[in-house]
TrEMBL record:
<feature type="domain" description="OmpR/PhoB-type">
    <location>
        <begin position="7"/>
        <end position="101"/>
    </location>
</feature>
<dbReference type="InterPro" id="IPR001867">
    <property type="entry name" value="OmpR/PhoB-type_DNA-bd"/>
</dbReference>
<feature type="DNA-binding region" description="OmpR/PhoB-type">
    <location>
        <begin position="7"/>
        <end position="101"/>
    </location>
</feature>
<dbReference type="InterPro" id="IPR036388">
    <property type="entry name" value="WH-like_DNA-bd_sf"/>
</dbReference>
<dbReference type="GO" id="GO:0000160">
    <property type="term" value="P:phosphorelay signal transduction system"/>
</dbReference>
<keyword id="KW-0238">DNA-binding</keyword>
<dbReference type="Pfam" id="PF00486">
    <property type="entry name" value="Trans_reg_C"/>
</dbReference>
<dbReference type="GO" id="GO:0006355">
    <property type="term" value="P:regulation of DNA-templated transcription"/>
</dbReference>
<dbReference type="GO" id="GO:0003677">
    <property type="term" value="F:DNA binding"/>
</dbReference>
<dbReference type="InterPro" id="IPR016032">
    <property type="entry name" value="Sig_transdc_resp-reg_C-effctor"/>
</dbReference>
<protein>
    <submittedName>
        <fullName>Winged helix-turn-helix domain-containing protein</fullName>
    </submittedName>
</protein>
Length: 103
């Protein structure tokens, strides 16, 4: 029997986000909060593209408009510390952040 779409993980490089809540990198579990998972999913869905703080606030927190907050920056820093080798979250000056492969 073939897996259904809901059984397949969201993948980029060596990281997998499974619908059941598991996150694996190099096949090893990574402990992420629900917010960190949602943030990583937003980056994976737009891999290689810079996402602005405004876009991330809308996609992850459901906040629209020009709210000024450090929430995105704080959660991006937490996620950076948890990502292992092979992936990095790059600051794009004047824009926001981008997920890319290392090397």
């Amino acid at each position: 029997m073939l897996p259904t779409q809901t059984e397949c993980p969201l993948q980029y490089a060596d990281i997998e986000l499974w619908p059941d809540g598991r996150t694996l990198q190099h096949g090893v579990p990574v402990a992420l909060s629900p917010t960190e998972r949602a943030l990583l999913a937003a980056f994976i869905l737009q891999a290689g593209r810079a996402l602005s703080r405004r876009q991330l606030l809308a996609q992850v927190w459901g906040v629209a408009g020009g709210l000024r907050t450090r929430t995105v920056d704080i959660h991006v820093n937490h996620l950076r510390r948890k990502l292992g080798p092979g992936l990095r979250l790059v600051t794009v000056f004047g824009v926001g952040y981008r997920l890319e492969r290392e090397g």
